Amino acid sequence: MSGKIIGIVILVSALVAGGVLYYLQVYGFYDEVRQDSVSLVSLTSQQPEAIPAEGITAIDADSSPIRFRACFTTPLSLPFLTESYVLLDSATPRNAPGWFSCFDAAAIGAALEEGRALAFMGQKNVHYGVDRIVAITEDGQGYVWHELNDCGEKAYDGTVVGEECPPAPSSVTQ
Fold first, then answer.
1. Where are the transmembrane segments (predicted)?
2. Distance between CA atoms of 32 and 96, rounded to whole angstroms?
3. How far apart are CA 171 and CA 174, in angstroms?
4. Of 17, 18, 51, 20, nearest to 37 (Cα)?
């Protein structure tokens, strides 16, 4: 009889721990953040410049520099954007929590592949080794996420960064 009780205690403990882990990964670390503007890197100045954006909703988490996601709308056309801002050859949106319903990584990725959306550089090194990517569709829907750049990939996987990257802060190399 005591074996059954121990088994039940272990099973209940595992279920509670699994539930807590799920909650922390999907909900617990994310916070809605106030984002007043969306920026794209200008072709002329190579600096981020704010673009007209409405209805910005954003989430972020302190636990990782690549957990930022945002959605917005803009009245700017894709032809205007491609003539004014740094276009990216390829970008792959990262999944967002299911409860952040405006950001569907699969749909955004499909729109980018099919040419219905274009990806732009929003800001280089928003955190060390992390760039802000902005995708905008033909109908003015915009999506923002963070992605590791070459220096970030090297710094975070332990590879020697090299001279082409700025020195990594101590928080990254420890």
1. 6-24
2. 13
3. 6
4. 51
As a whole number, mean pLDDT of residues 135-156 equals 89
Burial 49-74 (b: 16+ CB within 10 A, else e): eebebeebbbbbbeeebbbbbbbbbb
Render pLDDT for 58-87 as a digit per residue (tens, 0 to 9): 999 888 888 899 999 999 999 999 999 999
Contact 36, 54 (CB under 8 A): no
User: Do 153 and 87 lie in a common domain?
Assistant: yes
Query: Containing domain of residue 137, as a range?
Result: 34-173
Q: Which of 168, 127, 171 is nearest to 147 (CA)?
A: 127
Same domain, yes or no: 55 and 117: yes
Residues 23 and 72 in one domain: no
- The answer to whether residues 4 and 73 belong to one domain is no
